[in-house]
Write a structure and sequence with these properties.
Layout: H1 2-21, H2 44-58, H3 68-75, E1 78-80, E2 94-101, H4 112-120, E3 123-128, H5 145-160, E4 163-171, H6 173-184, E5 188-194, E6 222-224, E7 237-238, H7 239-259, E8 266-271, H8 279-287, E9 295-300, E10 316-320, H9 362-369, E11 375-377, H10 381-384, E12 389-391, H11 398-411
Parallel strand pairs: 2-3, 2-4, 4-5, 5-8, 8-9, 9-10, 11-12
Antiparallel strand pairs: 1-3, 6-7
Helix pairs in contact: 5-6, 6-7
Length: about 425
């Protein structure tokens, strides 16, 4: 027993010595100014201004950047007002408004194309930045999902001051937050969901494993430490981020179980092959969204027989996502909200999503980053067996998605 105790002490002493020598880049440390939502009660214009200053202060990659102003613009919240030719509201300045919320590790950049669409549809558009995002990955080390919920609540209040009817739109984590807010806020008239994180992989439950020994090593707080070469989203991923999205979905599940039925109109778009969230959970949620106007767009490699039992066929728009002529094996979680002509993530964009190979398969990572991949699509096990796959980051059917969205918007009751 004494020998065992001595061995344990030796291991701990060695671990502590190594930990004391271990350092992480400043981007993997919290900035101290972006883990809480501190803008409650602010006007939305003031919130945008203050958040831009926070981004500029916290980011470490802007001093040498020639496009610093563009990077700040792309990560910051934004406001788009409808044309003066649009119908005015009856009680407020505008008739309709939509609050857009981005996904985990992302930024409002991802909501810009949808924002422009809704602006053209005569919506007032507000997009928020979730706490912990837009600055440095280290700011996700200390954030909680309740702070994200506070940001959404603030956005709803700001929107409600200007429009007769408030709608919510969310991508991934933003979708989960939009549903959760709608359950508790009778002002919400409908939701637009894009690959919503209704439920995540069971592996998320284990995310808090790091708490047992994070005191030994700063790196143990991270599930992935990556190059972070993308100016509009984080590539490094802390365990706390997985913790918080898991806790959010648990709370969302409890809220939906109590309510049983979701009453506002729902427009949902999801990939059946999604590797980040469980698309089956979104289908189940949609099954319980009983408003007659609700519409589900399902990107599937089995478009003739989509897995949507108990849902009326006229409510489901199945889109074939197997396009061999374009080397696309399937749609992806990351491929819903951005158009093919996006200059960064689009078909000819600058960025290649290859983190599924980093750092364990660097040859494939380099091949993927050089865009010499064999295929594009979701990083499912079956797809990865076929060759080097670059994760799809744009919606090849985005033009049609806007047509379906337009039809849904036109069917909404006139307020």
């Amino acid at each position: 027993m004494a020998r065992f105790f001595a061995a344990v002490c030796l291991v701990l002493t060695t671990s502590l010595a190594l930990a004391s020598q271990e350092t992480l880049d400043v981007r993997h440390q919290a900035s101290g100014i972006n883990s809480k939502f501190n803008f409650a009660g602010s006007q939305f214009d003031d919130y945008i201004r203050a958040t831009r200053e926070m981004i500029l202060s916290a980011r470490t990659d802007l001093k040498a950047a020639t496009d610093a102003a563009h990077v700040v613009d792309s990560n910051a919240p934004f406001l788009l007002r409808p044309s003066s030719t649009c119908p005015a509201g009856k009680e407020k300045r505008y008739r309709r408004g939509v609050l857009l919320t981005h996904g985990l590790t992302d930024s409002p950049y991802f909501m810009r194309p949808l924002g422009r669409f809704f602006q053209d549809q005569c919506f007032l558009v507000m997009a928020i930045l979730l706490p912990g995002h837009g600055t440095r990955p280290g700011d996700l080390l200390e954030v909680t999902w309740q702070e994200w919920a506070k940001a959404v609540a603030f956005g709803v209040d700001a929107m409600a001051r200007e429009v007769d009817s408030v709608y919510l739109g969310g991508f991934s984590t933003g979708g989960a937050l939009s549903i959760q807010r709608s359950v508790h806020d009778s002002r919400i008239r409908g939701v637009f969901l894009f690959a919503p994180a209704v439920k995540i992989s069971p592996l998320g439950i284990m995310a808090n494993w790091h708490e047992a020994y994070s005191w030994l090593s700063p790196k143990s707080k991270w599930l992935d430490i990556a190059p972070d070469s993308d100016p509009y989203k984080y590539e490094s991923f802390p365990a706390n981020a997985a913790d918080q999205i898991h806790l959010l979905t648990v709370q969302l599940g409890a809220d939906l179980n109590r309510q049983k039925r979701f009453m506002p109109p729902v427009f949902a778009a999801v990939s059946e092959d999604d590797a980040s969230v469980l698309s089956s959970a979104t289908v189940q949620f949609f099954r319980d969204a009983i408003h007659p106007l609700s519409t589900l767009v399902l990107y599937t490699t089995n478009s003739k027989r989509p897995t949507t039992p108990d849902i009326s066929p006229d409510k489901v728009k199945a889109i074939d996502s197997y396009l061999p002529e374009k080397r696309i094996l399937s749609s992806a979680h990351t491929a819903i909200v951005l158009p093919p002509d996006d200059t960064h993530y689009g078909a000819s964009g600058k960025y290649a999503s290859c983190l599924h190979y980093y750092p364990k398969a660097m040859d494939k990572y380099r091949q993927c980053k050089s865009k010499n991949e064999d295929f594009l699509g979701e990083v499912t096990e079956s797809n990865l067996k076929k060759g080097v796959v670059r994760r799809l980051t744009y919606n090849f059917d985005f033009a049609n998605l806007k047509v379906l969205l337009t039809s849904f918007v036109e069917s909404l009751p006139s307020e």
